[in-house]
């Protein structure tokens, strides 16, 4: 059987279709050197898999250092931030605005903002996927003086202990950390060793450490058989999807002789004071005795002198008679 001959126009159509499909695929993977376009592509991709968190700050007048918004995040999100500038006299038709992160201008964020309804509205989106994206975001209107507002983006705060935790050798101590607003994925305990943090693994040393978590928001570390070597800085870390938040606890382990030192010092001071009082009384009594003896001697001498004078006077009178 002879093979069927394919018409030339069919072959040409197939080649054209394959060629168009190939170039369409390549153009879909083309990237651009423009940082703004790259940012838009990344945001569009992220928005399809992440939720969006929207926050707006209204600035009335020029910059007030207290104009800020605190944002606590636990999961990946698209952060949709915006600032609205109002209540400025003689508003120009447009102003230049840009965004800063941790005090540094974000490249490619500068844009011209047109006035609308006697206000300027400035908006941008930031993907928050890990701890490197946390920090201070600021919208800046380039005026004289500048108008600025800050968004402080963090993971939820973890409460440690401000004052030192004091215990004694041989005792056991329980350290507690708390997460108030959100439920962490887990907890980790560290011991500060110089500049390094050593993870405390209670499973490997159950006779020394035990850990517990209550309702997910309260973590505890129990240390048994305390020694003075256990003194130091401990950290509890509440772990979230985009980072961790830490609480600090300072442990001081004292010897049982330490509480006695103040009493011993007081006893020594009392002993010294009593000794000084006794010495003073002895010295005063001795001086008083010497004084009294001196007065008695003077009195005796006076009596003797008076007796002698009387005897001489009597003799003189007897002779005159």
UniProtKB/TrEMBL annotation:
The keyword S-adenosyl-L-methionine does not apply. Keywords: Membrane, Signal, Transmembrane, Transmembrane helix. Residues 293-304 have a biased composition (Basic and acidic residues). Residues 1-28 form the signal peptide. Gene3D superfamilies: Immunoglobulins. SUPFAM superfamilies: Immunoglobulin (SSF48726). Pfam families: V-set. PROSITE patterns: IG_LIKE. Residues 288-321 are annotated as: Disordered. The keyword Signal applies. Residues 65-139, 156-255 form the Ig-like domain. This is Embigin. The gene is EMB.
């Amino acid at each position: 059987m002879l093979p069927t001959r394919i018409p030339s126009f069919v072959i040409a159509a197939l080649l054209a279709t394959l060629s168009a499909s190939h170039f369409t695929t390549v153009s879909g993977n083309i990237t651009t050197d423009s940082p703004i376009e790259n940012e838009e592509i990344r945001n569009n991709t992220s928005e399809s898999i992440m939720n969006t968190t929207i926050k707006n700050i209204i600035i009335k007048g020029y910059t007030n250092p207290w104009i800020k918004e605190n944002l606590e995040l636990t999961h990946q999100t698209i952060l949709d931030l915006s600032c609205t500038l109002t209540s400025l006299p003689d508003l120009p038709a447009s102003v230049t605005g840009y965004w800063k992160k941790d005090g540094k201008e974000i490249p490619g964020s500068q844009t011209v903002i047109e006035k609308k309804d006697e206000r300027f509205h400035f908006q941008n989106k930031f993907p928050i996927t890990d701890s490197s994206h946390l920090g201070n975001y600021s919208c800046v209107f380039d005026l004289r003086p500048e108008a600025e507002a800050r968004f402080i983006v963090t993971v939820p705060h973890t409460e440690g202990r401000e004052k030192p935790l004091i215990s004694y050798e041989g005792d056991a101590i329980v350290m507690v950390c708390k997460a108030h607003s959100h439920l962490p994925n887990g907890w980790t305990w560290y011991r500060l060793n110089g500049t390094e943090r050593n993870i405390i693994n209670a499973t490997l040393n159950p006779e020394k450490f035990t850990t517990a978590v209550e309702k997910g928001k309260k973590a505890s570390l129990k240390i048994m058989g305390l020694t003075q070597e256990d003194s130091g800085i401990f950290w509890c870390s509440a772990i979230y999807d985009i980072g961790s938040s830490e609480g600090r606890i300072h442990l001081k382990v004292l010897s049982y002789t330490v509480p006695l030192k103040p009493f011993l010092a007081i006893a020594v001071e009392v002993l010294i004071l009593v000794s000084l009082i006794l010495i003073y009384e002895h010295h005063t009594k001795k001086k008083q005795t010497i004084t009294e003896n001196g007065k008695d001697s003077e009195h005796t001498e006076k009596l003797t002198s008076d007796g002698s004078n009387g005897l001489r006077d009597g003799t003189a009178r007897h002779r005159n008679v």
